[in-house]
Amino acid sequence: MTPSPELTTAAPLTKLSEEEGLFRDTVREFAARDVKPRVAAMEQASALDPALIAQCFEIGLMGIEIPGALGGAAGSLLMTVLAVEELSAVDASLAICVDVQNTLVNNLLLKWASDELQRRYLPRLAGDVVGAYALSEPESGSDAFGLQTKATRDATAGCSRAASCGSPTGPKRGCSWYSRTPTSRRATKGSPRS
User: Fold this and answer.
1) Which one, 51, 76, 122, 125, has least CB within 10 Å?
2) Taking the model in full, what pTM does it have?
3) What is the pLDDT of residues 74-130, one digit of tens each?
4) Structural domain includes residue 106
5) Residue 61, CB half-sphere, CA atoms under 13 Å: how many?
6) Do residues 25 and 103 share a domain?
7) How many domains are contained in the chain?
8) What angle separates helix 50-58 from helix 92-99, to the nearest 10 degrees?
9) Which is nearest to 160 in space by CA: 141, 134, 142?
10) Per DSSP, which regions of 27-160 are E strands?
């Protein structure tokens, strides 16, 4: 049996393109030069250094897959993986912040938000707003299969009702999202802070 052409023409994931290699090296240098010297202080404070987060925005790490027209770096998922891997070698906390921003916040908007919502939120998420993603409830923690949230129609608000725990980054960082039921007449509500 002969493999289909599309299976044989893709570059192997073990061989980075020149652009991917340069990107990886840039993130590795940033991690060694700017992140590593601050790790002990961040661990002592139990907080990320806001200056490092600002630097992540400046060098495009917070909007890797967001199109350039929307202020992002117009990169790929593999580039996000490379960034997270290089940052993780020095500080897992910053790596998780970059990972959540790119894969859970930005990616959801890129895949499912309307063009209007993308134009409204993605430039800020690539530029200066740290998004939050909360998957937690009092009885299930972060066990996705144990969640009790159910989308129900509310005659007055048309929104989901459930007990939930707040995200530790949401109120501090400036972006919160609410869900809606498929039958709701109201649009999904996002409320960025100024």
Assistant:
1) 51
2) 0.72
3) 999 999 999 999 999 999 999 999 999 999 999 999 999 999 999 999 999 999 999
4) yes
5) 28
6) yes
7) 2
8) 50
9) 134
10) none
